[in-house]
Amino acid sequence: MHCVCCIKQVPNTADVKIDPETNTLIRSGVESISNPFDLVALEAAIQLKEKHGGRVTVISMGPPQAESCLREAFALGADAIILLSDRAFAGADTLATSYTLAKAIEEIARKKPVDLIVCGKQAIDGDTAQTGPGIATRLGYTQFTYVTEVQDLDKAKKQIQVKRKVEGGIELIRGPLPALLTFELEAAKPRRATLPLLIASLRAKVTVWDAQAIKAEPTMIGLKGSPTWVKRIFGPPAREGGPRFDAQKDPKLAVTQGVDALLADEQFAAQFLKGWK
Amino acid sequence: MDNYKGVLVFGEIGDGKLTPITIELLGVGRKLADDLGEELSILLVGSKAGALAQEAIACGADNVYIAEDSLLDAYNSDAYTQTAANLCKKVLPSIMLFGHTDLGCDLSPRLNGRLGGGLSMECMTLSIDSATKALIATRPVFGGNAHATMMSKSARPQMATVRAKVFAPAERADGRQGKVIPVEDKLDASALKVKVVEKIKEQVEGVKLEDAEVVVSGGRGMGSAQEFTKLRELANVLGGAVGATRVACDEGWAAATLQVGQSGKVVSPKLYIAIGLSGAMAHIAGCLGSKYIVAINKDKEANIFNVAHFGIVGDWKEILPPLTAKFKELLSK
């Protein structure tokens, strides 16, 4: 089993603020973390390795500092870590990103065939959920999105069965390898690194590949290869919140005040009292 | 890019009807098509698709493409991608719209990978740039902490998935005229790799979270699984659904399917009652579209009060019983 896991370094979104004057991202002081969804995918990959044997290769596209995510992945059990870093990759949207990652995976597969690619369902910065399916379709891998559990992996028959979330329930689906899986958060709980691995990760070799190394077409990567552009980024409209009623002395009174305020909107009140009919 | 014209909606069918998001897509699609001075088309797939063609026309479609094939009855990544990609290559739409549903999120990036062009996810506003006739789309990024306005360069089609309940449903008019066009290409069954082994329906107590007009959500402040169940009574009185924060789900107080927020479900009910939850941005991103948000929290500085239309400051244990009683009394009249 050879599994490739794609990881993205993202700003910890809980801290991201938009400068209301310039409408740009305030980056200073914002911590960089591995996308939490990707860490779940990595954990799933490592569990598969523990069960079925094989290797886990982790790749990340980003600036040189994204190396820290790869070392973290090594500490968690990855066997090889590759950073895709090149000025020409900068400014990539999801289409250019999935092309770049797909080219890197092709390169990896030339040396050792890949059975499985695992990704998080989405990254917490862009929230697009496009990159995984984009890679699958480029490489012609079977696509399984929103996976909550890998139920069966038949190495001999080259088949995989997963449980995935769909609207109104869950679905058990089966298909051939090689496959690409994108994971939901509940699929696995990322482990903690052991001390020996943590120490080893500091010395682990990070392979760095540029555009040439993955034989990427210059017109398909970075800004040039990106059909979309962000015209403007802005903070959500500031909301101040409405009246607050203090229930500490008299809860009943506060409840009456709150409900009266809500039902002061006559149209809303009429619908509400009729049960929205 | 001048060959690409009009707006194409990928229609979803549920229980033999166009789903609510499909009717919303026809509504916003009609407006975009009119602004472009071009046509609105919809693709409907599955063996029952033909029966809905007139309904789609009544909702504003100029052209209805029907791919009637039993292989398309249930969603299949490969089959749907093949069908939609073939049609796009023939019709050459300038804009293609999907619902931001499980189906839309699985299909659109796949299609985008095949066809190129730009794709913006979970859009909340869509308009046409008057100078370039390009699509302008606004979508939440960074877990709802910011919004980004996206545009496509020259590549077409410009694709977008659209968040549910953001756009008004299409206005229905029975006399409308439109063309029904069968899709002739037959699916290559050998190219369909994935098979559905089993489908398990989610057991929902009461109303589905996504469909509910009232959602009663709880967070860390509920304190325990047992206390959390008290939200159910209020939800039942209001004919609503129970929601939860990430913490409440992680603690096992509520099923993961009830999580509201960036990594859970996005809901837009008429009334959202947030109890014992502080209002982390990632949670708020999932409920900001609600018509009214009412917050109950003992910390008067809690962020949830900044987005709530009305707040009650105090211990929920003292507020929930009179609140439930009050609503019960009002609704029994």
Task: Please write out the topology.
The complex is a heterodimer of chains A (277) and B (333).
Chain A: E1 2-6, E2 9-11, E3 17-18, E4 25-26, E5 32-34, H1 36-52, E6 55-61, H2 67-76, E7 80-84, H3 94-111, E8 116-120, H4 131-139, E9 142-154, E10 159-166, E11 169-176, E12 179-183, H5 195-203, E13 206-209, E14 228-234, E15 244-246, H6 251-262, H7 266-273
Parallel strand pairs in A: 1-6, 1-8, 6-7, 7-13, 8-12, 9-12
Antiparallel strand pairs in A: 2-5, 3-4, 9-10, 10-11
Chain B: E1 7-10, E2 13-14, E3 17-18, H1 20-36, E4 40-45, H2 53-58, E5 63-67, H3 77-91, E6 95-99, H4 102-115, E7 119-123, E8 125-128, E9 135-141, E10 146-152, E11 158-162, E12 179-182, E13 195-201, E14 214-218, H5 225-228, H6 230-237, E15 241-244, H7 246-250, E16 271-275, H8 281-284, E17 292-297, H9 304-307, E18 310-313, H10 316-332
Parallel strand pairs in B: 1-4, 1-6, 4-5, 5-12, 6-11, 7-11, 14-15, 14-16, 16-17, 17-18
Antiparallel strand pairs in B: 2-3, 8-9, 9-10
Helix pairs in contact in B: 3-4, 6-10
Describe this structure in words.
The complex is a heterodimer of chains A (277) and B (333). Chain A is an alpha/beta fold and 277 residues long. Chain A has two domains: 219 residues, HUPs (Rossmann fold); 38 residues, no CATH class. Chain A has seven helices and 15 strands. A nine-stranded mixed sheet of chain A has the order 11-10-9-12-8-1-6-7-13, sandwiched between helices. Chain A has a two-stranded antiparallel ribbon with strand order 2-5. Chain A has a two-stranded antiparallel sheet with strand order 3-4. In chain A, helix 3 crosses helix 4. The longest helix of chain A has 18 residues. The mean pLDDT of chain A is 91. Chain B is an alpha/beta fold. Chain B folds into two domains: 185 residues, 3-Layer(aba) Sandwich (Rossmann fold); 119 residues, 3-Layer(aba) Sandwich (Rossmann fold), CATH 3.40.50.1220. Chain B is 28% helix and 26% strand. In chain B, the strands form four sheets. A seven-stranded parallel sheet of chain B has the order 7-11-6-1-4-5-12. A five-stranded parallel sheet of chain B has the order 15-14-16-17-18. Chain B has a three-stranded antiparallel sheet with strand order 8-9-10. In chain B, helix 3 crosses helix 4 and helix 6 runs parallel beside helix 10. Chain B is elongated, with a radius of gyration of 22 Å. The mean pLDDT of chain B is 92. Chains A and B meet through strand 3, helix 3, helix 4, strand 9 and strand 10 of A and helix 4, strand 7, strand 9, strand 10 and strand 13 of B.
